[in-house]
Specification:
By secondary structure, the chain is mostly helical. It has helices at about 15-30, 55-70, 85, 90-100, 115-120, 125-135, 140-145, 150-155, 160, 165-185, 195-205, 215-220, 230-235, 255-265, 275-285, 290-300, 305-315, 330-335, 375-385, 395-405, 410-415, 430-440, 450-460, 460-475, 480-505, and strands at about 340, 350-355, 360-365, 365-370, 420-425. It contains 25 helices and 5 strands.
């Protein structure tokens, strides 16, 4: 009996089937089109539904409404307080000394403080004298101010003005404005004030948090029969007695802004330093703003960009020699053959440098240094840090530039001898200390970068330093120069005599 064997087919595991299919798939690919990448494995994602709460919706709404609240509808510029970034590095004693009024308040920020109450009794008297000189009706002036009281409120921070109703705030603007105009009209010669009070008022008028909107002053003096009122206001802003016609009266935000215009001249700062190519480039950047932002984002996220930023941060970049300024003060520049001359004006923008072979000449504006200089400059710097201030930062950049030049009392002495600085403080060391303290933790915004580059190019030429040093050592007085001329003449005569003696023989 023959045994019949039955072949029983066992089921093949699924893993084996997948391996067989994959191997046959690879063989087919090798025979037809060559090697191909293995098929990608599908990733299974789990969608998570996140519900946005009402609080997050409010946050989103605040972002959408932020752009609508940014443009100010107020016809008059705002009167800011001292910015927080300056207050963080300021002690209470320093704040009271340089940012808080000493004898008189203007506006609501410092109104009602006990140490300022004595001057409140003098304001009505000055208002009465101004009314008599201008032939105005106090009722008409008050009505004009109260009709614009909403514009006045928008100029100030909300909390200080909320303490006063419309009538009180309008009356405050009237008395403060008339006192300011009377003080300007009489050039500070108010009979009821003593000399030290007049000096303090001149400083208090230019404190950042002690300003009135210029629109309020305009409402008061526009109806006054004082022909020279506008010229007096312009002259009051000039620090060196420059004619008022040299500074056009563009409507400022307040008196501190007027003082800044007087320091900068008619150019209003760094706008004139932008040439046509820079203006075209700025326009092109504005037109391609979106593309530029994406390109900058890609560059920033790239490893190479971060690597270069770290190298520059720690001074390892190869192009630092073209960026850093190695000169430190006036004595070093003088040793390199750079001399200083007055520019003829007091405008901070009137700075220039010219290099002539081994000599260089830098022109700087005239600057008066007295007891009011430091508080004025500190408040101008604080004003430039405010959001609504001009964007050129010219005063801050000028102070940083001057701090680079002044490091020692001898530097101040050199500028005094050239009629650039007039020091009424009596001590050159005190002047050097003032500029060093003002620029402490101050950022240089590079308004005068072109001048610094020209100085650096001249300073880097070693030949200029050698020649200038030789001239300083050997020809610093007329007697040494005359002795050199005499020696050259004697050598010349001796040479001629020797030549003819040899020729005769």
């Amino acid at each position: 009996m023959e045994a019949k064997q039955k072949l029983i087919k066992k089921p093949v595991p699924q893993s084996g089937i997948r391996q067989q299919r994959a191997s046959s798939w690879r063989e087919d690919c090798d025979q037809t089109e060559g090697p191909k990448p293995e098929p990608e494995i599908e990733e299974h994602r789990i969608d998570v539904i996140v519900e946005i709460s009402d609080r997050v919706k409010n946050w989103i709404g605040s972002v959408g409404n932020a752009k609508e609240r940014t443009p100010s509808q107020n016809p008059w510029p705002s009167i800011p307080k001292v910015p927080d970034q300056i207050l963080r590095g300021t002690t209470p004693s320093v704040f009271k000394k340089f940012y808080e009024p000493r004898v008189i308040s203007f506006g609501p920020y410092h109104h009602g403080k006990p140490h300022l109450q004595s001057m409140e009794k003098i304001k009505p008297l000055c208002a009465k004298e101004f009314l008599a000189a201008s032939h105005q009706s106090i009722e008409d002036v008050y009505k004009k101010i109260e009709s614009n009281i909403e514009a006045v409120r928008k100029c100030y921070d909300r909390r200080p003005t909320n303490k006063y109703d419309d009538e009180t705030l309008a009356w405050m603007m009237l008395l403060d404005g008339r006192f300011i105009l009377q003080f300007i009209l009489l050039k500070g010669n108010i009979q009821v004030l003593r000399e030290h009070q007049i000096s303090f008022v001149q400083v208090d008028l230019f404190l950042l948090g002690n300003q009135l909107p210029f629109g309020v002053l305009q409402l008061i003096f526009e109806g006054a029969r004082v022909i020279t009122m506008k010229d007096r206001i312009k002259e009051f802003g000039m620090s060196d007695g420059t004619s008022a016609s040299e500074m056009p009266l563009e409507k400022p935000a307040h008196l501190l802004d007027l003082l800044r215009s007087a320091f900068l001249g008619s150019s209003r700062g760094g706008d004139k330093k932008m040439n046509s190519k820079q203006q075209e480039q700025k326009a092109a950047n504005n037109n391609n703003n979106t593309h530029h932002c994406w390109r900058m984002m890609k560059e920033f996220l790239s490893f190479q960009c971060l690597f270069q930023m770290i190298r520059r941060l720690f001074g390892l970049s190869q192009d630092n020699n073209n960026q850093w300024k190695t000169f430190r003060h006036i004595r070093e520049l003088k040793a390199a053959g750079i001399h200083f001359k007055p520019s003829g004006t007091s405008f901070l923008t009137d700075i220039s440098f010219k290099s002539h072979f081994f000599y260089g000449y830098m022109k700087l504006p005239f600057l008066l240094i007295d007891g009011s200089t430091k508080p004025k400059l500190l408040n101008l710097v604080a004003y430039e840090m405010c959001p609504d201030a001009p964007k050129d930062y010219t005063v801050s950049s000028f102070l940083c530039f001057l701090d680079d030049l002044i490091d020692h009392p001898d530097d101040v002495k050199e500028l005094r001898s050239k009629k650039i600085l007039y020091n009424s403080l009596g001590s050159d060391r005190e002047v050097a200390r003032i500029f060093n303290e003002i620029t402490d933790a101050l950022v240089d915004f590079g308004v005068y970068e072109d001048v610094k580059d020209d100085i650096q190019k001249h300073y880097d030429k070693i030949v200029n330093t050698w020649i200038a040093q030789a001239l300083h050592d050997h020809f610093s007085s007329p007697w040494t120069f005359m002795a050199f001329i005499a020696a050259v003449f004697i050598l010349f005569v001796t040479g001629v005599q020797t030549y003819y003696t040899i020729a005769d023989n």
